[in-house]
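Deliverable D4.2, example record:
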Amino acid sequence: MVTLRRFRGAQIDKAGRFFYAAGRNAVNLALMQDAQPPSPTPALLGPDDPAPFSVVNPEGRTDLLLFCDHAGRAFPARLETLGLGPRELDQHIAWDIGIAGLGRRLSAALDAPLFLTAYSRLVIDCNRHLTDPTSIPQESDRTPIPGNRGLTPAERHQRQAEIFAPYHAALGALIQKRLDDGHVPVVVSLHSFTPVMNGFQRPWHVGVLWNRDARLAVPLMQRLAQEPDLVVGDNEPYSGRDGHGYSIKAHAEALGLAHGLLEIRQDLIAAEAGQDRWAAILHRVLLDVLGRPILHERHLGEGSTP
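Output generated by the structure prediction step:
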């Protein structure tokens, strides 16, 4: 049985700053953004650019938090499209195809908050540490990214401060608020993967990525395997142990929260019918798994058994 809780309201302003509202009082929690030193150059994001992220169902009552690091494919107007054409922008290098629609459906079905990034991973990858060379990639899946070549430190800092930082500040703030209220959420990161990579036809329909904490990952894989005709990957098509990802490490592993990263094959969720189908699958799978009390405990250490 999934534990349902009600939490106080949350708001986002036009700049993407995250606020918790309690009566007439509002506290600005975008510390990472506002702590940045003033820049002599114009802001990267203009008034007509979208906010760097959005939160769906911020008052969701389930002790579960969903997020999609590669949900959007917007580009700041100042950057145009980084020198890429429509063909490249429709491909997996720009975003996780279908994952935003799936995430919205799952958020509604489970009554859980969902964070969605707005900007393409080619502008800055919100699932990479800022020191990772692929944080602002100069090439992706053998496609050169002209607008990412020869960036100055100030240009890199703008993307970090205006897109990466407010997203992670808000995500971290909501998790901390729930912990402060005495609730331990399960953290699930949603991604999608291309069916073919470097000429290899990937056989998996869904993969679960994890590192040391098996509390969610192993039961999740076991339950997914009970669904008819599904090929389930254990740390496939990527691995939670390769050191590349950032968000799960920062917002779940570091806090001792049960977590997992779900990868769904993009051809299965590119259309709305596929998103409906996979939202139904993941809804019933997660309902069967999330009621375990051990998932709502904090385990700070080397690893946890299911």
